[in-house]
Amino acid sequence: MSIHRSYFYYAEKKDDNEVIDSIREASEFGDGFWKIYSRLLREGKKWNHKRVYRVYKLMRFNKRSRLKKRLPARVKQPLVTPGLPNQTWSMDFVSDSLECGRKFRVLNILDDFDRSAIAQEISISMPAERVIRILEKVIWLKGKPEAIRCDNGPEYISNKFQDWCKANSITIKYTQPGCPTQNSYVERFNGSYRRGVLDAYIFRTLTDVREITEKWMEDYNECRPHHSLGDMSPNEYKRKYETDNNIINLAV
């Protein structure tokens, strides 16, 4: 093999276990090499930076994967039925696909007071900016809610949505991750909508989805009885509330 016998039998005597443990401990919060090396120097480790970098590469820390964002802790809040309209709205997305296979999303907005469907917006894409425009249009027609209950979807945890809610004095009630029952009103609405529309029809275009959804939403608000509302429809329950409390509805 054209190599010296001593080279063939040579066994490396380096022990890098202490360096490995130190690098792993110093890299807990995702710092790069030079930050880690500075930490080791501050801790009194006198290793040469070449040795530390050699071990750093062997550990494949020089090819760092993107860290996953962690949500802040969400406080569990009881699901209480509001005593007045526009106290709490619930929002959530459902998705389906057209006949061609292209997916679309439906944003459902519900008033927890009378379970009425305030809006159902259908689109291929629904970023935070679009959600804000939809809410502004609905607020102009229905009034502003005091709070909005939603999950931790990217549209809801974005800075744009949070800043908009803060500017409009709207409290965001986030549900805990993996706990859809904390938003039960809109989850139940999603199930009814899916059974009545999404699972019942094959859609060729978004126009088909919007037309059928509009008819279903009108029937839901005007005719569909709710056991929790005394077998009245949402709009019927709201009219009864306004009559009992001598409230004049100025909505056009």
From TrEMBL:
**Superkingdom of the source?**
Bacteria
Q: List the InterPro entries.
A: Integrase_cat-core, RNaseH-like_sf, RNaseH_sf, Transpos_IS3
Q: Name one Pfam family in it.
A: rve_3
Q: Which PROSITE patterns did the record assign?
A: INTEGRASE (PS50994)
Q: Where is the Integrase catalytic domain?
A: 81-242
Q: Which PANTHER family match?
A: INTEGRASE CORE DOMAIN PROTEIN, LOW CALCIUM RESPONSE LOCUS PROTEIN T
Q: Which NCBIfam families match?
A: transpos_IS3 (NF033516)
**This chain belongs to which protein, by name?**
Transposase
Could you tell me which species this protein originates from? Bacteroides sedimenti
